[in-house]
Specification:
By secondary structure, this protein is mainly alpha-helical. About 65% of the residues lie in helices and about 0% in strands. The protein has a two-stranded antiparallel sheet. α9 runs antiparallel to α10. The protein is rod-shaped and about 180 Å long.
């Protein structure tokens, strides 16, 4: 950045802090690279000016010369990292700030190695600022790697949970749970079947009543017609009153008396039979009328239950369609998110393992710088390998998408008519079936009643009148 131009404020997180640590070390290493025993004061003056610029100081006074002054500058730069202060660079190479974490490791290694070569570690003792870098690595950066790993594991759990939330095709019943809707239609089927059985019982009683009434009416007609058959003009019987030649009067009277008595008795008998049959027929009619009314009422009750039944099947069909569509959408969304995020999470996992190894080597190098160490110790730090199993993530493979099961019989298909209405009593058949809204016939503008059942319920007959529902 140009002189006086502030670096954008650090957003936070591991990547941002790495930039600041790299920048701080780059300033210090830049000083160390210019340091020579004969010109230490001048080199430190240059480095001190840069550090003061980084800290926003106004004074251009050089820090104390020598290794101690260099350590203070180093510590000041680290302090700037801790406090997340914006830094200003006067002619400094910005690529050092934007470099990866390996830049930081290289800067530390460069610093420790040059310090060792210049006998800073041995001659001047512990180098100020190295301890602060070590604390930054141990207390802030390394824990943040674990936190980032935990966050990735949580994201994987959330991604897996997204599939679990989808449930199955039957888990999204729209207006109601699909299981509840299925049980509801089962109840409606049973309720309707029981009602139709009751209707059949009432119809049987009504039919028996009508049979009796028809028999009584037939008896009445026969009895009353018999009177008509024997009825004749009284004058036609005058021939029976004629006396035979030589008949005594007493015999003639007795003969006529017997004939009239016989005719009268027969007339009385036929009349009584007609009247009796008529009275019996008339007495039966109100009984049958009441049973016909009872049957009609029962049929209306069962018709209402049938409408509820068909509505329940339509509600299940709607719920099934909603459930299938919702599940498919949910699963597709979850799978797309999973396929998008998994490779990114895997790359981040590998990156964290690399970062963890780098931080461990940096910690080792700063420890050498703090205590003062040998070239062998520096080389050992460079060769450190670390166990990163604690950064391993547990992945999962999404289960396959479930297929939506068949919706089953719907009003008024052949399978529905056979399965739901096929076992009903022959004298208590359902009324014509009403299809669900949105069926093909509705879309084509066909009448609401898609199909009329071929088996019509028996009409209710009373006397000479036939009633149809």
């Amino acid at each position: 950045h140009g002189a006086g131009s502030p670096h954008p404020s650090l957003v936070g997180g591991l990547a941002g802090q790495m930039k600041w640590v790299t920048a701080a070390l780059a300033v210090a290493v830049g000083v160390a690279a210019q340091w020579q025993p004969a010109g230490a004061v001048g080199a430190l003056r240059v480095g001190g000016g840069r550090l003061r610029a980084a800290m926003g100081e106004q004074s251009e006074t050089s820090p104390p010369a020598g290794a101690a002054g260099w350590g203070k500058m180093y510590a000041a730069a680290v302090q700037a990292v801790f406090e997340d202060k914006p830094m200003v660079y006067a002619g400094f190479n910005q690529s050092l700030v934007a470099g990866p974490l390996h830049n930081l490791e290289n800067q530390v290694l460069h610093f420790v190695t040059r310090s060792h070569e210049q006998e800073l570690l041995n001659a001047a003792g512990p180098v100020g600022g190295a301890k602060e870098v070590d604390e930054l690595v141990v207390k802030r950066l390394t824990p943040q790697i674990q936190e980032a790993s935990n966050a990735s594991q949580q994201e994987l759990s959330d991604l897996q949970g997204a599939f679990s939330k989808c449930g199955g095709p039957g888990a999204h019943g729209g207006p109601g749970d699909l299981g509840v809707l299925d049980r509801a239609r089962g109840v409606k089927v049973k309720d309707h079947a029981l009602c139709r059985q009751g209707e059949a019982d009432v119809a049987k009683v009504q039919e028996q009543c009508e049979t009796t009434l028809q028999s009584l009416k037939f008896a009445m007609t026969t009895s009353c017609d018999a009177i008509k058959m024997v009825a004749r003009d009284p004058s036609e019987g005058a021939a029976h009153c004629a006396a035979t030649p030589g008949m005594a009067r007493g015999d003639w009277l007795k003969s006529n008396r017997d004939w009239f008595i016989k005719e009268f008795d027969e007339h009385q008998k036929l009349t009584q039979h007609c009247e009796s049959a008529t009275n019996a027929s008339k007495a039966q009619e109100p009984l049958c009328a009441g049973k016909a009314t009872a049957l009609s009422n029962k049929r209306e009750e069962c018709n209402a239950k049938q409408a509820n039944l068909e509505d329940a099947f339509c509600a299940y069909k709607t719920g099934w369609q909603h459930g299938c569509e919702s599940y498919t959408s949910c699963y597709t969304t979850a799978l797309a998110k999973y396929e998008e995020r998994r490779p990114i999470i895997q790359r981040d996992e590998e990156s964290r393992k690399v970062q963890y190894g780098v931080l461990k080597r940096i910690s080792c190098l700063t420890d050498v710088a703090t205590k003062g160490g040998s070239e062998a110790e520096i080389d050992a730090c460079r060769k450190i390998t670390n166990d990163t199993k604690h950064l391993d993530l547990k992945y999962f493979d999404p289960h396959s998408q479930e297929a939506c099961a068949a919706v089953g019989p719907t009003p008024c298909g052949d399978d529905f008519l056979g399965e739901v209405y096929g076992g009903l009593p022959k004298n208590a058949l359902p009324k014509e079936c009403m299809p669900c809204p949105g069926d093909l016939q509705h879309l084509l503008g066909q009448p609401q009643h898609r199909q009329v059942l071929k088996l019509e319920p028996a009409p209710i007959q009373h006397g000479s009148h036939v009633h149809r529902r």
